[in-house]
Design a protein that fits this description.
The protein has 354 residues and is α/β, with parallel strands linked by helices. The chain is 42% helix and 15% strand. The protein is built from 14 helices and nine strands. It has an eight-stranded parallel barrel, surrounded by five helices. Strand 7 (238-240), helix 11 (245-257) and strand 8 form a beta-alpha-beta unit. It binds (3S,4R)-3-hydroxy-2-oxopiperidin-4-yl beta-D-xylopyranoside.
Length: 354
């Protein structure tokens, strides 16, 4: 990336701001340093844990100095935002959105319709198909309308394809109650509530191989060809360092071939996919991870500019990751250490576009 004079001057200002006051660090909303993802030629961000944003200054400072986009890790999921049929709890999501808007950070909404994170009022809901349709529509439209003009884009439907790519996810309550049309109609409902919002289908496993990838691509191409208001495809890309580069490149280039915007929406690169309980992070692992993150960012940067919606990592520091809990193993899949110091992979991403 070309550096402008402004970029060379601003670090000096940032340094001055940081050194002025040790106790009360003045962080301008426009801080751009020469070690900032804000320099990247595409949006870059993180899934945010709102309680950490509220309480951890180092965490918040990474967002202020590095993020041009954020997603909510949990607080926009139905169980959190819509815990009872007539109850919406906006507090945490509003906190994140207000923080982002104030600091010129884009907000990507995650996620309106998912088979997980379902509150009891939904799983226990009794009604005919019209009542279920009304539930879906009201849920989507209340939330999208609430954030209209503040949330730029939404993962409308998340993970509707089976884990192995063999078809639509049969265990999804939405699929069971509403049939496969729930996907297209969810996009339509979201579009009606905010015609300016960019609407994404989000899923994982595009880099695993043809079966899952083709199932996802067929779904989004079908939606597109039917005139459903879909603007983008989210590649979650919860991956690991052993995933061959070619698979990741194919995942990204085939997503771009749909003509939709591409969001690498939940990136993390596991360094312990074999579940070694005694593995310790070291400089060799750090370098392998850096190489993989760099490769992902390079591949992403090679698709047409207008389709580069951005890269979002699923958490900021390694202490934030869901991977260690989900797989019950030590792991270090993110770009910052537990204490939010930059890892080698941070510089891998930064250098990917130079
Ligand atoms: C995960 C969060 O990271 C966890 O904190 C939460 O308990 C469960 O969900 N795919 C998705 C994300 O789309 O919403 C998931 O996030 C990770 C997998």
């Amino acid at each position: 990336m070309k550096r402008t004079t402004a970029l060379l001057i601003v670090p000096a200002i940032a340094v001055m701001l940081f050194s002025c006051s040790k106790k009360n660090i003045a962080v301008s909303t426009t801080v751009v340093t020469d070690t900032s993802f804000k320099q990247l030629p595409f949006p870059f961000g993180f899934a945010v844990n709102v309680s950490k944003l509220r309480t951890n200054i180092a965490y918040k400072n990474i967002l202020l100095t590095q993020a041009t986009s954020v997603s909510a890790e949990t607080v926009m999921k139905i169980a959190y935002l819509h815990p009872a049929q007539n109850t919406y709890v906006w507090t945490d999501a509003d906190y994140l959105v207000d923080f982002a808007v104030q600091n010129n950070i884009r907000v990507h909404g995650h996620t309106l319709v998912w088979h997980q994170s379902l509150p009891a009022w939904v799983t226990n809901f009794v009604g005919d198909s019209a009542a279920w349709e009304n539930l879906l529509k009201t849920h989507i439209q209340t939330i999208v309308a609430h954030f209209k003009g503040k949330v730029t884009s939404w993962d409308v439907v998340n993970e509707a394809i089976e884990n192995d790519g063999s078809g639509y996810r049969a265990s999804s309550l939405w699929y069971q109650k509403l049939g496969i049309g729930f996907i297209a109609r969810s996009f339509q409902y979201a579009h009606e509530a905010d015609p300016n919002a960019l609407l994404f289908y989000n899923d994982y496993g595009n880099e695993w191989g043809n079966t899952k990838r083709n199932a996802i691509l067929n779904l989004v191409n079908d939606l597109k060809s039917k005139g459903v208001p879909i603007n983008g495809i989210g590649l979650q890309m919860h991956t690991d360092y052993t995933q061959p580069d070619a698979n990741i490149q194919t995942a990204i280039s085939t997503a771009a071939a749909t003509g939709l915007k591409v969001h690498i929406s939940e990136l993390d690169i596991s360094m312990n996919p074999s579940n070694n309980q005694t593995l310790v992070f070291n400089s060799i692992i750090a370098q392998q991870q850096s190489d993989k993150f760099k490769m992902v960012a390079k591949a992403f940067n090679s698709i047409p500019k207008a389709q580069q919606y951005g890269i979002t990592t699923w958490g900021i520091g390694d202490a934030d990751t869901w991977i260690t809990g989900f797989y019950s193993r030590p792991d270090w899949p993110l770009l910052f250490e537990n204490n939010y110091q930059k890892k080698a992979a941070f510089f891998g991403v930064l250098n990917s576009v130079k």
